[in-house]
Amino acid sequence: MNYEKLKSEIVEIGRRLWLRKYVAANDGNISVKVGENEFLTTPTGVSKGFMNSEMILLVDADGNLLQESKYKPTSEFKMHAEVYRKRDDITAVVHAHPPFATAFALAGIPLDECYLPESALFLGAVPIAPFALPSTDEVPASISDLILRTDVILLANHGALTAGKNLTDAYFKMETLEHTAEIVWRAKTLGNANVLSEKERERLNALREKYGLTNKVMDCKGKKNL
Ligand SMILES: [Zn+2]
Predict the structure, then answer these.
(1) What is the DSSP string of 39-78?
(2) E-assigned strand segments in 111-208
(3) Average confidence score pLDDT of the chain
(4) Is residue 86 helix, strand or coil?
(5) What distance in angstroms lies between residue 120's CA and the mean position of ligand 1's atoms?
(6) Any residues with CB less than 8 A from the CB of 210 and at least 6 apart, and which?
(7) Which of 31, 54, 180, 191 is most buried as measured by Cβ atoms within 10 A of its Cβ?
């Protein structure tokens, strides 16, 4: 298998992450599961805005190359591998540093209240994983428990991780996360951000069932007038 279509999708999502300023320089990484112990992932040391299909690597769950390449896989692949190890329903993972969401991660303020209906449906409450030194085993350990309960995690003093049933799903969660973080930021700057009431959240939960949404979300708190 050469997985050309999936490689092109990774290249396109990398370009969008970079164009939307969710990553700077060589930041960020993307992966997709293609077999029981086979994954496509992005290389280290390359801007995600300037990738081509030849740069996308086939690796096993330990990050070993399964096809020869002059590129090396991202050092953060172990974080992606942890998501796949913990969640059978996930086949794609995106990691980036979108500025508004990352600012919340830096401030230690989780996006754990429901402000917008779409965010409540697709993200739910977004927790913050404790700080872990990039590229070390601390990183997979820091998300290991949280990923059982949510598809979207802020990484303290670092960035964000989103997981999905396919590449587009994981990428769109990153977009929704950053969009939500920016709107909440702006509302708080205005002086007030109302959250959805418990009754409204119950009605939203009914919609999740009606539309058969399978994304894992943690329920948000329903505090009024922050
Ligand atoms: Zn990072």
Answers:
(1) EEEPBTTS-TTS--GGG-EEE-TT--BSS--SS-B-TTHH
(2) 128-129, 152-155, 159-164
(3) 94
(4) helix
(5) 25
(6) none
(7) 31
> Among this protein's residues, is 202 annotated catalytic?
no
CA 160 to centroid of ligand 1, rounded, Å: 8
Tell me which of 12, 36, 76, 209 is the catalytic residue: 76
Distance 217 CA to ligand 1 centre (A): 23
DSSP 8-state class, residue 159? E
Task: Answer yes or no: pTM beyond 0.90.
Answer: yes
CA 25 vs CA 44, 72, 155, 196: distances in Å: 11, 17, 19, 37
Q: Would you place residue 208 in the very low, low, confident or very high pLDDT band (cuts 50, 70, 90)?
A: confident
Average pLDDT over residues 172-185: 98
Q: What is the CA(183)–ligand 1 centre distance, in A?
A: 23
Q: How far apart (Å, rounded) are the C-alpha atoms in residues 13 and 77? A: 17
